[in-house]
């Protein structure tokens, strides 16, 4: 599903140039659950943003579902993204002005799903995330764990093939964290490919495979079974 | 659809959540819009003046231009002959109508009152489109004893509208004669130069109609209707050719009688489109036409409207962008879940439209509320129904689209460009340089400062005109006007008046003779105005005599061969020693008059005009038309009673009316006084809108910097340190704005003041006051929020993060 080869990403500021990704190559097959680990600043988030088509690599190839996507313009990327990829962030990133229901509904609106169908699907996924009773609340009125469940709900409502999660448990206590990990595992078991960045060896154990990075390069891959 | 509902929902919740921001935006914008709307209304009314006549594009006024002593004189008036003779002899002129203003004495239930009337030719209703309630427009003016009345007049005279066939008693010579109402007209529209309550058929004697000398009297307005297929220039040439032929004899005898100099020309006849008459300041509407306008006011008003609207739009842009920083997260998320740039632009434009729409709705309410006050101030009768004009609605729609787009487009572009990765990982640098925002604040305050200075200038100048010393004492003087009072009757009346102890003095006069010419001893010609007075005039008005002596009954020659002049006359004549100089005037019949005294210049004309040479005579063959009666202070009631009794006794058949001279003088500058108010209001509004904008910016900027300020305070920054951080930046911008605005305003003020022969000095004080004012207002605005932020407990702001 994902095949990157010699991926490079630089950040230029006035004085220095940082290499965030340095000739990174790996592959993720459909249905896999991969964890990416490494010290702070080694380029994990940068990698995830490129995989999520939020950012463009400076060099190298990125084949998504058999299509070369590096060099796509913003509109094309947005289009590919909204149909195929769901995001979960450490800091939840819900829109404060929208209710739980409306936040989860948003991706469906952008993909042009009919209202009745939208309602059905949002309810389904909220049910699944056990957050249905909170659907009329605003994000500020929820606990961190609840907010992250809403974020996961929003990420999966469109039935994406790929879910990218950047430290999804980073802001949560261990029981809430485990809940989120269970959700991700369940989704993976239903066939969704997942790439997750994490600092926690505990969380990484939920995955099939761990890619370890250092200074923008892949160091090792451990396959867990 | 769902997307739009989602946008609206977010926009609405945003509005409610950010009350200060929304209020400032909507309030500022609606004030700006209502200003613009009112002024659009005003300007539309001004430019549509007289345009309601169906035939307006073919109606022209006959005017004349003449160069006298190298100076071009324009004259919008004409006399008996121009209309009929041009119509008869110039191909392409289809019809004409003469309009002459005047007043007639009308009897009602035994009482006599004076009524303004227009005398018009019978073609009046076929040329102009004044609708009749009753009567035949073609024939109603045919009979010389017919009268056409307005609804208002009918109500006043009869207490009802169906007065067709009724009679009105009007004095002809000395007998009250019945006039039959042959038509009732709707009240004249307010945007008409022709306003009438009573129309009477035009009257001209056979002698006058045949006297070629009447080419040279100008006291009425002649309009002609051109054939729509004819060429205006061609007709003007024909008119000119005919005039030069037809009037050549009259012109010769005029030159012989009145002189005119070597370079005397016959002048040229021109046609002025009726639609341009209202705003013509060189040939103002007079002698039967009214409502003379002045395009200057339209310009000033449009300027204010534009300024206010621009400032409101700047507020909108600045606040939207400033606040967008708080919305960056929302934008980032929308992009992550699949929104593309186009959709975001639509969303933010939509929000801008929503705000504009609310502002617009509010503006309409504001306009409706302030329309009566605005009418009062601007001397108009604009009404709500007037707002519903098709073109005006289009203009308002245009205004709405323009505002919404110009205020919303830039923020939409900026916001939609945010990079979601940077936003969501808090790498987004929200501080930035914000050059645009700074530029807009500078622009905004430059405009506001300019407007304040301009207002100051205009305000002071109008104030000066309203309160200026006219050079004579107009207090406690009652003026009575009555045409054609012979010297003997005048003496009788004066003596009768003086029997009361409250009457201090009585000065009969006739100062209405403007622009006469005479020869000096050295054969040089001089233009001047002259006034017929008696010996009481100067003492009563406290006009000082600077050389020689006043007229006196003790010198018999004073009533025939002696004259007095003003200083401007002496200057123009270039006399070193004016006393004893001679002037040869009155029809060039070689009558020599001798100067016995010089008075100090006083403003006998409006303050908008320079004091011109003036000559005073007591000669007995010219009648008086006015009495200036000086009374003891606080004796008005008794005095007026005595004056009325005396008047009724000496002139039993004439209508009696009086005015206080200082009231008249005040009224002359009423327009200026009103405009002073409008301008002051405009400037206050501009400053207010600028300030709420600045206030909003400070609120947002301190919100944006709460974390920074919290950290600074934890590290030991004092309240005043924080205040400095927050306000200094804005104050710097205001200072730059002042530096830009002051020189420009200075130049503009000077240019404008050149219109006035008597004017204020601009001086540096005004600029200092403006600068101080603007800085203080800005400081207060900014400080309010800065203090609040500076005093806040840092723990709260940090915990929020
Ligand atoms: N916008 C940017 N401008 C400049 N440098 C950047 C930018 N974004 C990331 N970097 C640099 O790129 C490198 C990789 O950053 P990235 O955020 O991918 O690290 P990370 O592995 O996710 O770290 P963490 O575990 O702390 O989240 C870092 O050295 C960072 O300083
Ligand atoms: Mg990271």
UniProtKB/TrEMBL annotation, chain A:
One of its GO terms (cellular component) is membrane protein complex. The keyword ATP-binding applies. It holds the Pfam family ABC_tran. Residues 2-225 form the ABC transporter domain. PROSITE patterns: ABC_TRANSPORTER_1, ABC_TRANSPORTER_2. InterPro entries: AAA+_ATPase (IPR003593), ABC_transporter-like_ATP-bd (IPR003439), ABC_transporter-like_CS (IPR017871), MacB-like_ATP-bd (IPR017911), P-loop_NTPase (IPR027417). This is ABC transporter ATP-binding protein. It comes from Galbibacter marinus.
Automatic annotation (TrEMBL), chain B:
It comes from the Bacteria. Keywords: Cell membrane, Membrane, Transmembrane, Transmembrane helix. One of its GO terms (cellular component) is plasma membrane. It is a multi-pass membrane protein. Coiled coil: none annotated. It comes from Galbibacter marinus. InterPro entries: ABC3_permease_C, MacB_PCD, Macrolide_Exporter_MacB. The chain crosses the membrane at residues 20-43, 296-317, 352-374, 394-415, 435-459, 678-701, 722-746, 766-787. It holds the Pfam family FtsX. Residues 22-241, 446-638 form the MacB-like periplasmic core domain. Signal peptide: none annotated. It is found in: Cell membrane. Residues 304-420, 681-790 form the ABC3 transporter permease C-terminal domain. One of its GO terms (molecular function) is transmembrane transporter activity. This is Antimicrobial peptide ABC transporter permease.
């Amino acid at each position: 599903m994902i095949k990157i080869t010699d991926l490079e990403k630089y950040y230029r500021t006035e004085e220095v140039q940082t290499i965030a990704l340095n000739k990174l190559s790996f592959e993720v097959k459909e249905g896999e659950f991969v964890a990416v680990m490494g010290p702070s600043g080694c380029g994990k988030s940068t990698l995830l943003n490129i995989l999520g088509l939020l950012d463009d690599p400076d060099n190298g190839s990125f084949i998504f579902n058999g299509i070369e996507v590096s060099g796509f313009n913003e509109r094309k990327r947005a289009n590919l993204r909204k149909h195929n990829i769901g995001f979960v962030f450490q800091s939840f990133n819900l829109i404060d002005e929208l209710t739980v229901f409306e936040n989860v509904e948003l991706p469906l609106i952008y993909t042009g799903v009919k209202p009745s169908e939208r309602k059905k699907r949002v309810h389904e996924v909220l049910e699944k995330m056990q957050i249905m009773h909170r659907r009329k609340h605003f994000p500020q009125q929820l606990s961190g764990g609840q907010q992250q469940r809403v974020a996961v709900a929003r990420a999966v409502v469109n039935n994406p093939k790929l879910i990218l999660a950047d430290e999804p448990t980073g802001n949560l206590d261990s029981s809430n964290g485990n809940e989120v990990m269970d959700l991700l595992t369940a989704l993976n078991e239903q066939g969704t490919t997942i790439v997750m960045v994490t600092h926690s060896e505990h969380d990484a154990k939920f995955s099939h495979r761990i890619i370890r990075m250092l200074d923008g390069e892949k160091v090792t891959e451990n396959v867990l079974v | 659809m769902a997307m739009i509902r989602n946008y609206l929902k977010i926009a609405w919740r945003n509005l409610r959540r950010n009350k200060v921001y929304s209020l400032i935006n909507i309030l500022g914008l609606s004030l700006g819009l209502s200003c613009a709307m009112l002024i659009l209304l005003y300007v539309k009314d001004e430019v549509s003046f007289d345009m309601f006549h169906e035939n307006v594009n073919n109606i022209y006024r006959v005017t004349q231009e003449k160069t006298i002593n190298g100076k071009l004189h324009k004259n919008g008036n004409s006399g008996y002959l121009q209309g009929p003779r041009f119509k008869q002899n110039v191909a392409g002129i289809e019809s004409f109508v003469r309009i002459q203003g005047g007043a007639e004495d009308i009897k009602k239930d035994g009482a006599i009152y004076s009524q303004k009337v227009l005398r018009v030719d019978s073609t009046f209703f076929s040329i102009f489109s004044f609708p009749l309630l009753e009567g035949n427009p073609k024939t109603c003016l045919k009979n010389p004893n017919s009268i056409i009345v307005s609804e208002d007049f009918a109500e006043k005279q009869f207490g009802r509208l169906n007065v067709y066939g009724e009679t009105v008693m009007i004095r002809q010579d000395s007998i009250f004669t019945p006039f039959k109402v042959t038509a009732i007209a709707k009240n004249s529209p307010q945007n008409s130069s022709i306003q009438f309550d009573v129309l009477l058929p035009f009257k001209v004697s056979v002698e006058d109609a045949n006297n070629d000398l009447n080419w040279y009297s100008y006291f009425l307005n002649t309009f002609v209707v051109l054939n729509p297929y004819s060429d205006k220039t061609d007709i003007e040439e024909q008119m000119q050719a005919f005039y030069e032929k037809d009037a050549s004899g009259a012109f010769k005898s005029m030159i012989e009688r009145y002189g005119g100099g070597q370079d005397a020309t016959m002048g040229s006849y021109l046609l002025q489109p009726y639609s341009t008459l209202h705003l013509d300041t060189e040939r103002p509407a007079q002698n039967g036409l009214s409502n003379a306008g002045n395009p200057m006011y339209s310009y000033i008003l449009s300027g204010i409207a534009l300024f206010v609207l621009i400032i409101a739009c700047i507020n909108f842009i600045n606040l939207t962008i400033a606040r967008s920083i708080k919305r960056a997260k929302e934008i980032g998320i929308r992009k992550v879940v699949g929104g593309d740039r186009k959709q975001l632009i639509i969303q933010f434009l939509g929000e801008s439209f929503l705000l504009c729409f609310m502002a617009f709705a509010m503006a309409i309410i504001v306009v409706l509320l302030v329309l009566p006050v605005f009418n009062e101030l601007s001397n108009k009768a604009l009404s709500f129904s007037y707002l519903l004009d098709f073109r005006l609605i289009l203009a308002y729609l245009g205004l709405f689209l323009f505002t919404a787009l110009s205020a919303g487009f830039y923020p939409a572009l900026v916001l939609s460009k945010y990079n979601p990765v940077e936003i969501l990982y808090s790498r987004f640098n929200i501080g930035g340089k914000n050059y645009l925002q700074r530029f807009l604040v500078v622009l905004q305050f430059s405009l506001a400062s300019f407007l304040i200075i301009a207002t100051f200038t205009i305000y002071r100048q109008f104030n000066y005109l309203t309160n200026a010393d006219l050079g004579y004492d107009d207090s406690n003087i009652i003026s009575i006007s009555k045409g054609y009072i012979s010297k003997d009757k005048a003496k009788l009346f004066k003596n009768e008046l003086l029997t009361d102890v409250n009457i201090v003095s009585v000065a009969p006069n006739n100062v209405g003779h403007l622009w006469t010419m005479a020869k000096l001893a050295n054969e040089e010609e001089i233009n001047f105005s002259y006034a017929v007075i008696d010996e009481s005039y100067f003492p009563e008005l406290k006009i000082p005599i600077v050389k020689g002596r006043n007229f006196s009954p003790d010198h018999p020659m004073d009533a025939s061969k002696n004259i007095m002049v003003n200083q401007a006359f002496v200057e123009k004549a270039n006399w070193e020693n004016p006393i004893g100089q001679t002037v040869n005037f009155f029809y060039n019949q070689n009558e020599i008059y001798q100067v016995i005294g010089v008075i100090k210049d006083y403003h006998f004309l409006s303050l908008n005009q320079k004091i011109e040479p003036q000559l005073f005579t007591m000669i007995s063959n010219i009648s008086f038309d006015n009495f200036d009666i000086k009374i003891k202070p606080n004796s008005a009631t008794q005095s007026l009673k005595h004056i009325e009794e005396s008047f009724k006794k000496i002139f039993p058949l004439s209508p009696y009316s009086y005015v206080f001279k200082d009231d008249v003088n005040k009224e002359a500058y009423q327009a200026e006084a009103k405009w002073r108010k409008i301008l002051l209001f405009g400037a206050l509004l501009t400053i207010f809108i600028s300030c709420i904008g600045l206030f909003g910016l400070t609120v947002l900027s301190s919100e944006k910097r709460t974390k920074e300020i919290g950290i600074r305070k934890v590290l030991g920054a004092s309240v005043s340190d924080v205040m400095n951080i927050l306000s200094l930046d804005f104050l710097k911008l205001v200072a730059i704005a002042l530096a830009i605005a002051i020189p420009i305003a200075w130049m503009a003020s000077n240019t404008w003041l050149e219109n006035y022969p008597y004017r204020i000095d601009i001086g540096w004080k005004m600029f200092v006051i403006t600068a101080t004012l603007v800085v203080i207002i800005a400081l207060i605005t900014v400080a309010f929020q800065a203090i609040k932020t500076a005093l806040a407990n840092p723990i709260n702001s940090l915990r929020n993060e």
